[in-house]
Structures are given as structure tokens and as C-alpha cells.
Amino acid sequence: MARQNYVFTSESVSEGHPDKVCDQISDAVLDAFLAEEPSARVACETFATTNCVVIGGEVGLSDQEKLNDYMGRIEEIARATIRDIGYEQDKFHWRTCKVHNYLHEQSAHIAQGVVGQNEGAGDQGIMFGYAVDETPDLMPAPILYAHAILRRLTEARKSGREPDLRPDAKSQLSVRYEEGKPMEVTSIVLSTQHAHESQSSDDIRAIVEPYIRETLPAGWITEKTEWLVNPTGTFVIGGPDGDAGLTGRKIIVDTYGGAAPHGGGAFSGKDPSKVDRSAAYAARYLAKNVVAAGLARRCTLQLSYAIGVARPLSIYVDTHGTGEVPESEIEKAVGKVMDLTPRGIRTHLGLNRPIYRRTAAYGHFGRAPEPDGGFSWERTDLADALRKAV
Predict the structure, then answer these.
(1) Is 170 a catalytic residue?
(2) Which pTM was predicted?
(3) Choice among 133, 243, 329, 339 that is catalytic
(4) Is 276 noted as a catalytic residue in this protein?
């Protein structure tokens, strides 16, 4: 029997966090290649530190001349991304930082197993999806609201309403559960970069507290809630100038905040032929539809793949004692209602399009599906098919 009464904590980081700066640059490069050619191959990694961005990895287009042209646009893409995030610091400025591009053509040895009519997975690996009915988005509450707080503060910063806020920030929520349902926030941790060394922790709390209160559900903040806002004091030096960043270092922030297993693969900078990304999206899509269909209140779903092999080696479902039907029946059903080959996933979810930069901050899951196909894995359009299949 799963625990029903406990406190669980998740963290998020803003789009200005050094690792997230790198994730967004990598995904902006990916979007540029996919806008040119939906079947583009991209595995882009970014490193950022004081006044410096280094980009490397493998890319591929069918037209070599276009590939050479796009190689020349990488610096422009990186600078535009940094500018959009809002970095204009003396030691990390979108206009003056050095950008080094070490991208090169994809390995032919990798390509031989993952392209063509019988396209296989781009690598071996395990991917997990998760859904739970404790929020309308079928996401764990701590990570969902940790993201929401930072998104709200970013909106206030970019609108000009809060000119003393700066891009780099982190949040952390501890939520008390009773009978398996989120009831209240026991502690709020918020660290945000700010403009002036003279500003105290109390000054920053006065800025951010109204936004936090309006973001969390009514009644979740109580007199007992502990507030820790900029607990170390001054936080003026931030972003890649304060701490180096790297693509793929925030995989728990990207997914379920530690409430579910993670297969280990990062998402950003990888085109959807790579199952690290696409199969993780498919697993979330299927787990969410299992819960939306009323087959379980909570669902963890695992897929596994081998490089060069198209079909998943295994499908595993755990409903944590909340299932209305046996897990083995759900495992059979998900394989019937969706083609889980790499090509099948991309086709079903419409993944071969430039929709990835937006995923690289504030979580890949629990976001509303968008008209252009963004966050298509958050749809619940398989619920009826799953009910019929079981």
C-alpha cells in the first residue's frame, strides 16, 4: 500500500538558469534545422560560462550546401536566444559574449541504423512516462507549481512590471499530502537574481510574494508555511557568469520533479528520431491517457529500445494500486492504440516540426497542447481508444 500522508518536495529553475540557457540554445538550433527540413538530424550540446558559449555535436541535412549555410547561422541563433532570455550583464551579454561553434556532420555509422524504411531507434535506452490525478494537468503538484511560480515571475520581469528582477532563479516547494492528495505548502524556497546589492532578502520577498500567492491554489499557503527567499542574501551575479551551464543537466526539473523514475536521457538539443526524447514524450502521452481514461488514478509507464531496432523491447505499466483493470491489460492496450516505433511516435505526435525551444524551460510536461503542434504529447485523445482496448 502506497503512503498516503507525507511531505514531498520538487524544484524548478528559470529560463535564465545557466543550464537552461544551454538547453534553450540547443533547442533553438534544433528548431532552426527542423524548420529547414523536418527530417533533419540534430544532437546539439551547449556549454556556457563567463562571456563564453561553446556549441558542439552532430547535425545532418539532405542538402550539403544548406547544411553549410546553417552552420554559419549558429552564432546568430545563440545570441538571439540569450537576448530573448534577457542577459545584458557586463560578463554575460548577448551582444558581446564569445560564441564558439563546433557542430559537425552526423556520423555515417550512427545514421546507417536509424534512417531508411526500417528506421530503428537512435540508441538503446529506457524511458518513463508518468501521470497522476492530483492536478487538472495530471501532473505532480510540487513540480507543476514550482514551474508556475517561476513562469509568473519571468512574465513580470519581461513585462517591465518588476525591473529589479533578473533572469536567473530557482524555486522549491514542499507539499504536504493527506490521503494521497496535496493539501498545503509547508515550505517555499525562492532564490532570484536581482539588480542591486543594497536589496535585502526582505526586499526581494516583498517583490515576489504577491506573485507566489496568486500562483498557488487558495488555502495552500498557511500561517505555518516557511518562507526562504534569497536565503544566502545578495544574488546580483548570476547566470553563466555566476555558474557554468551545460545542456541536459536538469532532467528531473524537465520531467516530474522526482515523483517518478527517470531513464537517464536528456531531451534538449535532440531531434525526435532520438528515443531519449520522443519515446519519453510518448510514455507521458500514454500514461496521461491511461489516467484520463479512468483506468487508474496514477500511472508509471516504461518503454525500452535497442539501437537500430524499431519496436520497443518492452512495455511496463505500474498503476501503484490505483488501477481499475490489471496492469497487464493496460500494457497490451497501449501497444494496440499507438505505433511505438520511432517513426510511429513522430507521426502520431507530429514531432518533426520546430516546437522545441519552448519546451526547454518550465518543464516538458503539464503544458497545454498548442495549435501549431507544440506539446502534442499532452493531449488526451487516446482515452476512448484505451477504454475500448481493455
Answers:
(1) yes
(2) 0.95
(3) 243
(4) yes
